[in-house]
Amino acid sequence: MKETCYCPQPRDVPATDSQSLDSSEREGEAESEQSSLFSGLLLLLLPLGGDGTVNGTAAPQARTSSVRRRALSFENGGSPDVHIGSSLLSPIVASWRRTSHLPPPAPRIFHPPSSCMSAVPCFKCQSCYHHHLQDLCRKQLLLIGENHISIAMLPVIAVHGGAGHIPKERAEVSCAGVREAARGGYSVLRAGGSAMDAVVEAVTMLENNPSYNAGRGSVLNVKGEVEMDAIVMDGRTLASGAVSAVRRVANPVQLARMVMDKTNHLCLTAEGASQFARAMGIPEVPEESLITDYARMRWKKNLAPDANPVECQMGKMGTVGAVAVDAEGNIACATSTGGMINKMEGRVGDTPCIGCGGYADNKVGAVSPTGHGEAIMKVVLSRLILFHMEQGKSAEEASDLGLAYMKERVQGLGGVVTVDPKGNWAARFSSLQMAWAAVQNEQLHYGLYIGEHFTESACEPS
Ligand SMILES: NC(=O)C[C@H](N)C(=O)O
């Protein structure tokens, strides 16, 4: 599949950049050149966190891919014109040009849609000189005169493809799918889409991918049928929508969103959910189209009298989910699953239950979990993690605390992706593996095993 790329061409010297501008931008640049008083070149030594970490997780420097020099500009000479060139190990060089006493114009994205850099107004104080710049995952606040420049953490998306033990032969596809979905969701965010649009896009991509236990690829119930659960939640309004034990829809996450958008209810189940899908014009798909040979093989295997479906599931789970914060600071989550292998007909797991299979609140953050649904429900895992964040824990600490509690209290294993309103994110799991990926500041992060964290440019299709 062709991936959208927002990479700019490398831009080393701002003054020579005019060839890459469109005509209106060239005019603006020319005016700006005429009226400008170049007030100095400021060298900023910006350490990448004293401990060399990114998001609190050890960054695999060796695997970090090429870093581009990037530039960002504003619409006329009265606004700051900031150029950043950086690498993970080298200092940031920023040239700062202020050319008039006029109030600053609204910042805009420079070079859309080809720029990897963007600027958004300060979301605390829309009228001040603060501008949030996107670059590699740096959180430092740069102070330049009375102008504050902070490195934006938004937008961000993190996705998972299920916690468990992924067999070697499936590891590569599992990782590729979450990377692609994270990029897909991030493209929505980069184009100005909402966090809700982004998580639904990412989860839809994973539902359409037969490598996961959601949509096509769902595990089968004891009768060999597909019954799926999904949830979405909007952190701005706390609106939520879910479907449980729904059959013959390709994308339960989209149906869950319709429950949120078009009904006064939070969850529709089984035949009622199917009727609602029909009323909404969602085409019914043949059940066979959702069933893979792999799912059928595992179903048959677990019909054996000595089989242990829960243990088997712990071996190869593949529920999918996503959390995101958009450029406006709105947060959303989405989760979708086929449930547990050989579950009883009508079994409803954690996924469609608010607070268990997901929760999003602009004031705290969002979580999308995966794991043994009954265990997740017993500890209300998503809300438990957000509770820890309300108590001052970071996304990562809170995720670890929630997962550790679930393991200790009810012997449940699982994993989560978590974000906070500032864009700090975590992908944590107590199972052996969890395929996860996140995109922030044009960097794609991903991993599968505990402690694994690779980084590459989000603009480079893998
Ligand atoms: N794979 C999973 O994460 C299973 C899902 N949590 C459920 O119990 O329905």
Automatic annotation (TrEMBL):
For this UniProt record, give its keywords in alphabetical order, as a comma-separated list.
Autocatalytic cleavage, Hydrolase, Protease
One GO CC annotation, please?
cytoplasm
Q: What residues sit in the active site?
A: 319 (nucleophile)
Q: Which domain of life is it from?
A: Eukaryota
Which residues does the record give as substrate binding sites?
347-350, 370-373
Q: Which InterPro entries does the UniProt entry name for this protein?
A: ASRGL1_meta (IPR033844), Ntn_hydrolases_N (IPR029055), Peptidase_T2 (IPR000246)
- Annotated site residues (Cleavage) in this chain: 318-319
UniProt-listed Enzyme Commission number(s): 3.4.19.5, 3.5.1.1
**What top-tier enzyme class does this entry carry?**
hydrolase
Q: What is this protein called?
A: Isoaspartyl peptidase/L-asparaginase
